[in-house]
Structure formats: C-alpha cells, structure tokens
Amino acid sequence: MTVAAILARKGRDVLTVRKETPIADVVRLLGERRIGAVVVSDDFHRIIGIVSERDIVRVLARSGPAGLEGAVEAIMTQKVVTCADQDTLHEVMERMTHGRFRHLPVVEDGRLAGIVSIGDVVKARIEQVEREADEMRAYIAMA
C-alpha cells in the first residue's frame, strides 16, 4: 500500500498556517479541529515548518502561558521530514518510528499535497493485515 492509497480514502486537505500566526491561534485550531499538527507554509504551498502538540507542550513547559503570545515561527520544526505519494506504508512507518514523530506531510513537485498521521498509517496497516488473513483463510478453505 502507498501513501497515495491512504490519501485517496482520507483526502488531501491539510490545515496550514503562516509563520506569523500567533501560537495561541494554532492551539485553538488544533483543539477545534481535533488534530495533532499544522503545517506552516508560504503563499506557494511550500512547507517551511510544522507545529505539533509536542511543540506546544515544550513552549508551555519552558515559558508558561506567556509562551503562547509569540508567533508560530518561534516554535515550529523547520527541518520537516516528508514523504511522497509513491512511498510505501513500510517506508512511512520506518520514517515515523526513526524520527519519533506522528505527522508526515506529503510533497509533490516541491509543494504540499497532503499529510498522513500515525493513525492513518496504523489503520491502513490493520486493514492490510486483515485482508491478507481473509485471503489466507479463503485459500486454505479451497484446498
């Protein structure tokens, strides 16, 4: 299974913000949308950063509520690891595990084309395993 297959089911919509967006606004968006990360992009849909719940927790631990007054640019991860439509489920799982992150933006021709979360990947893997088990049962039943 590929990233393209996951996005075909889930959709390619990604919540993005600009680097000037107040951190407090990002916190509100994460809560309202019930998501774990937002991509920081420029006007051309190029990724310049990502902000996750973990980034918010770190700023709160370091600065308390006053930390939410700054711009998202101050806390975003700038070296964003990404994937492409043709990447496999296994490749994405490996990247997420190695990097210890839960959101992976999808890039196509240098521009943001979607995002996959660890939840999307786990769901796809479970479906894949269940499908394989059903095929094995059917094969054994025919023998």
SSE layout and pairing:
Elements: H1 3-10, E1 16-17, H2 23-33, E2 37-41, E3 47-52, H3 53-63, H4 89-99, E4 103-108, E5 111-117, H5 118-142
Parallel strand pairs: 1-2
Antiparallel strand pairs: 2-3, 4-5
Name some characteristics of this structure:
single chain; 143 residues; alpha+beta; CBS-domain; three-stranded mixed sheet; two-stranded antiparallel ribbon; 5 helices
Question: What does the model show?
Answer:
The two termini are 28 Å apart. The protein contains five helices and five strands; from the N terminus they run H-E-H-E-E-H-H-E-E-H. The model has no long low-confidence stretch (mean pLDDT 93). With 143 residues, it is an alpha+beta fold. Strands 1-2-3 form a three-stranded mixed sheet. Strands 4-5 form a two-stranded antiparallel sheet. It is elongated.
Mind summarizing the main beta sheet?
3 strands, mixed
| Total number of distinct structural domains | 1
Mean pLDDT: 93
For the biggest β-sheet, the strand order reads: 1-2-3
By helix and strand content, what is the structural category?
alpha+beta
Count of strand segments: 5
Poorly predicted tracts of residues? none
Gyration radius from CA atoms, angstroms: 18 Å
* Distance from first to last alpha carbon: 28 Å
Full CATH superfamily name: CBS-domain
**Number of helical runs?**
5
Compact overview of the structure:
The chain is α+β, with helices and mostly antiparallel strands. Helices cover 46% and strands 18% of the residues. It has a three-stranded mixed β-sheet.
